[in-house]
Design brief:
Keywords: DNA-binding. It holds the Pfam family TetR_N. InterPro entries: DNA-bd_HTH_TetR-type_CS (IPR023772), Homeodomain-like_sf (IPR009057), HTH-type_TetR-like_transc_reg (IPR050109), HTH_TetR (IPR001647), Tet_transcr_reg_TetR-rel_C_sf (IPR036271). This protein has 194 residues and is mostly helical. The protein has helices at residues 3-28, 31-38, 42-48, 52-74, 76-89, 92-111, 113-139, 149-168, 176-187. The termini are far apart.
Amino acid sequence: MSQDHLDARRRQILDGARACFARHGYEGATVRRLEEATGLSRGAIFHHFRDKESLFLALAEDDALRMADVVAEQGLVQVMRDLLDEPEKRDEEHAADWLGTRLEVSRRLRTDPDFRARWAERSEQLTAATRQRLIRQREAGNLRDDVDVTVLTSFLELVLEGLVSHLAMGLPADDMEPVLDLVEETVRRHRRNS
């Protein structure tokens, strides 16, 4: 098989698994359900991923890498804006699958110490991208300098988690743009008029 074919197969597995994990949760995403969701056999799925946890981690890491790319270019607030725009950009089912998977990651972080340890290695990428973006913004004179970058990073990550929970609960998102404007304004440097 060519590398392109292997990459396409891996993407097919990740996309199907995302929907399966979002609908059924980690425990409910049985091998049979993963086969149905991906359209592939157990052997094909586990040729690419060692086990179900490795598949789930790869899926969560894939989402984190996509978010880290957006953060590096446009900041973490843009990731949040993209979440609000998601239903218009892609079908609502995919957005719901992403949210479901994100919530499943949060649940497993809270309840599974082994998963938490494995995930810690992967989640640092998003935090590092956010921190680097904030440092660049501070060096450019656009970021407030009275609060440590680590604190600002934690603040933005907490807002992201809150937004994910808000959306996952099905609460209205129509009024969230002004909230994100406020978040962005909170981390900006304010120039005094002389």
